[in-house]
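#onboarding

Welcome to the new folks! Below is a worked example of what a typical request in this channel looks like: someone posts a single protein sequence, and someone else replies with the predicted structure as tokens. Don't worry about understanding the tokens yet, we'll cover that in week two.

Example request:
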Amino acid sequence: MSAGRAAQELALKRGEFDLAVHLGLISAEYSTGGRPRIRREEIDRLRAMDGFPGTLRVKVRTAGTAEGAQLLGISPGRFTGLARIGCVSPVAFYLNRYRAVVWLYLVDELVAFAAREPELLTGRSPVGMRTMLEAGSDRRARNWRSRRIDRLLSRTEDPWIRAAVQASTLDPVQLAEVVDDPYERAYLARVRPDPAFGRPGSISGREAMGHLMLADDPDEILWCRVRLGMELDRARETRPAPRPGHGPGLGPVPEQAQVAARDPGRGGARSGGGRWLLDRIGLGRRRSRDR
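Example response:
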């Protein structure tokens, strides 16, 4: 059944349902566009759980900064500081009426953090924490992206969808440097999962959410490029991206093409490992142009 119908059957608000699916609490099947479909057997399993629907709601209960700070018995400022340095990581977000990002945290994770690190909740903040905050550190968006990517990858073994998940973190310029074939980029865009939680009602809202999806720190961007290159290699070895005149059913890539995909420079062994990696993620070409 559709997500909306399943949410009604499980007595969940749509946001609670989306989060439960994202966390793997509700098993779902996905269409090419990433829309979840829920089997009747899964609905029956969840409805038969002890304490339904309360037990499921508790697992997806979230809190914003003010409520989270109150829950931990600390000030909102201290809570924000802990979130900025990555002690607690957001699981979802929404845009308020000013299109500002409001981060949400799982209550279960906040309670677990308080029990695990009570010394961070009282007294003077540790020197390391103060140093990171003074330097402007803010890992909330990055940690949210990382959690989202890991969950999306856990849903599928299809190499092209996995590559599309990795590609979703790079802007068009970065993506084109790693994936220089326009047909491959088009295919990655086609099989890419839904972008994020929330349903912004304006173009500016969609733009704000789209910006939040993209890696913005140099080392995060580099890591995303490396991971995309690795997933893309696996995808090319499995089957080529569709091209004009080809149907959806594509067989495995011939062995010679697999060799070429593993080593774009020549059909033999990889030479110059570091240089090969730079070329593979598009940085080798950039360095050549810079010279």
